Amino acid sequence: MGEVTLDFLQDILKDDFPDVTITNFEGAPGTKRGDNYTSVLYRISLKGTERHSDGTTASDEPWQGSIIYKCLPESALLRDAFKSDELFCNEVAFYNKIWPALSNFQKQWPNLKVPFKAIPKCYLAQSDIVVLKDLKQQGFVMPDRRQGLSIEQSYLVLKNLSHFHALSLAMKCHSPEDFYELVNVKDGISEVFFVSENEEYYKNYYREAARNALEMVEEELQDTENKDKYIDKFRDFCKEDTFFTTMVDLVTPKEPLAVICHGDCWTNNFLFRYADGDIAEMCIVDFQLARYASPALDLIYIMYVCLERQQRAEHLSSLLDYYVEEMHARLLEMSEEGSVFHTSLNRDVLFDMVQQEFRRCGRFGLGVALDMYPIMTCDSTEAPNLYQANDSEACWKPVWTSNEACRRKMTDLIVELVDGDML
């Protein structure tokens, strides 16, 4: 946080708070240990005075506020291991280029009843710093990473994701040249992790992640009659010569359904504001893993990372149906009568395509789970501390934990995918 000065803060907030003079600030960690891995978040508390005038007299009154300051970890090993520099470039591209273009596109449609706006205001985005509005001031809270999402939360997340994804499909249909400019390799978003040139680099990382997962699953299934069926399928999926290429293939965009995805749809990237015990609104944060890919990847994150097996058994079909219903309704609001969304890509066709993509990409959920389940279920002391400069090799290995929740989640997912003929 060495770059933060009173002049810096005054400058980035001058448009939103033209009558405020900041006199003091203090930074503190913005998240608990284990709640984020690729960047460091600070909450900067601000104090100052605000000038009030009634036309004849003016007075200064105390003012206070806060912002979120996001920067790279001090540890060079962590930055390298988690591709933090590349991820930051992705998020900078999202806030500086992608979201402004998508936002401007949706303004072209006067029939849009409720524009998608579940993204925090960004004051500044550059190569090593992102400064965001502090949603905590408005009453937004982050769910407990260990609890995952409730079904009520999931429906609202899917509603917002469907509207976000619909912007890509509509813009790609109506303004294809402008849309594809958003995903060019020069200054657009791009895949960071699952690209072929990273295969050798991450071989040891995923070898250890798979070994940890296999130990947990073998322990959970030790008294199960058909355990070999599930373990053999899992071993086959994790083979070193095919695992990474499989993940690369699954993140490769397939037309015509490819969209700009959030890319990291786990519990901690959704903030909710409640009123009288009910969810009033939500916001989506952290676009470092934004990618141009199948929308099923974001859906799979929600279903397989954020929900428990029993929740999926009871609600998965209705959640997917709701997502498609919301997406298609939004697409119709951003099109003229007789457009492709009324004809060849109508609601039923779209639903079939989303279902097919969900089944095709289901294995992606398991690949992500190798890393995410331990992250979600571990004790905070088992997670790397991004607020300390730590260049020991242990700090960027996969989180290792064998807690009961992690063993159960990993085993449930493998059994579910195998039984569903998706693995």
Structural class category: alpha+beta
Given the structure, what is the number of helices?
13
Strand order of the biggest β-sheet: 1-2-3-5-4
Query: Which descriptor suits the 3D outline?
Result: globular
SSE pattern, N- to C-terminal: HEEEHHEEEHHHHHEEEEHHHHH
Q: CATH topology of the largest domain, what is it called?
A: Aminoglycoside 3'-phosphotransferase, Chain: A, domain 2
Number of extended strands: 10
Helix content: 40-55%
Largest sheet, in brief, is:
5 strands, antiparallel
* Alpha carbon gap, first and last residue: 45 Å
Return the CATH class of the largest domain. Alpha Beta
Which parts are unreliable, with pLDDT below 50 for 5 consecutive residues or more?
none
- Domain count: the total is 2
Query: Approximately how much beta-strand content do the residues carry?
Result: 15-25%
Mean pLDDT: 90
Please give the CATH architecture of the largest domain. Answer: Alpha-Beta Complex
Rounded radius of gyration (Å): 22 Å
